[in-house]
Amino acid sequence: MIASHINEAIAAIFGLRAKSLEQGIKNLLSDPQLVDKVWNHSRAQSLFAKTGKAPSYIPSNTFALAVFDALVPPSGQPTALGELYATAQQLPASPAKQSILSIIQHADGDVNKARAGVENWFNSAMDRLTGEYKRRIQQITIIVARAVTALIGVDTLDLAQNLWHEQEARAAIAATAQAQPAALPQLMNTIGQFNLGWGKLPQDVGGWLQKIIGLAITTLAVSLGAPFWFDILKNLANMRNTGPAPQPAEPSKKA
Questions:
Q1: Whole-model pTM?
Q2: What is the DSSP string of 165-209?
């Protein structure tokens, strides 16, 4: 949870999502003039925060409308695909130009179908961008996990050994973990009795080797993030409780 909150704070402070979106749109459209027209479109500008911060998400229909308006500015009359195609042909040679022309060609003269094609094109690009963003955040997460683990000094092997040998503590932790969230302080007090941090240092080379391995395992566990462990705990709870509670039956409708 600490690592996840730090990640969110870093992403918010440096605007990583917004910068990633802006760069993704630049890579997608290629032409700087087209990018400026789309980014400065009234629909896109309406998504900006009051502080002027760029949005971290743009709906696909907003993007499609901004692209069409950038190619053929609205004049109050329905836009013909022929106009869009003629303007798109004047764009600099790029994959974006070929994609837009291909979408218009396969729209069979239907503007709505062309707009849907641009939306699908945008959504596919955003899916790839999301994957790239997750990989970037994962790198930050690993750095944060190392820092948190080094600060606290808790290694997984030491924790496992203490739980293995201390039956009463193991039973107390298990009982507390199944209780209500209000029992969390009691759980933390029980774990704190083990003195798992840097207060108990190894006395020999073997101990230090075990400590390093334990810290590495802790770093890996922390880098997986809070959502991963919440899902694991939820699934384990469902298994212990023989699955989720059944949904209540809908009341029968009278004829």
A1: 0.66
A2: H-HHHHHHHHHHHTS-GGGHHHHHHHHHTT--STTS--SSHHHHH
